[in-house]
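Q: What would this chain look like folded?
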Amino acid sequence: MEFDDIFLKTVDSTQEWAKKNVAKFDKSKITCISAETQTKGKGRFNREWLSPEGDNLNITFYFQLDSKCLHLVSIAHILALSLAKVLRDNNLDPKIKWPNDVMLDDKKLAGMLCEIQTKNEFADIFLGIGINVNADEKFLSKIDQKATSLKVETKRDWDKQKLLDDLKIVFSNNLKLFNEKGFEPFYEKFENLLLYKGEKITFFDGQKEYKGILHSISSEGKLNLYMPTKEMLTFAAGDIISK
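A: My prediction, written as structure tokens:
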């Protein structure tokens, strides 16, 4: 799919802006909304996403898929895998903290927020991603979890536009395959990058906490948690809150 690029100097949230302006977008393309500054960026579970002015990538991809597309709820996994490939191509060693946080050295580099609005035969996908690109350690210390940036990890400044262009190419190719065959072609790649696999974790499904061993993911992209009772629980959504 081709891209339509929209650049905003300042916005409250690229995700909210996309939802308010969706009627104007070309539904045959991927609309890429980027912002130099986000004043009210948000992550999953309505968490605040902090971003210093000019240093990071604040992006929302909007596109339509068939509402019957296989494994639609796993679409954010595809963006996480796409970023992971770009990073590996730059000699980095990313992992993915399920469902779609991209990590370096057990610290969060990028997070994603996916919102899906289904209308009859089509699904509107609003897929947001924030990437810590050139943020410094002083800024990262303000974040309420262990975080890092590409600059901190590699000791050099990164070209944000080139990073975005590379991500768009990989994501577009992966999205085409996902649209045709769902998550299954990506399953092994994702599991090979899965952080905490085989380790004890505490998992939050939005209502309740569970303690068990992160066993694997399913071919649909769901998390398999092996419980002390020897029962396997499978989750389509949630968050790993500690290990």
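The chain has a mean pLDDT of 94.
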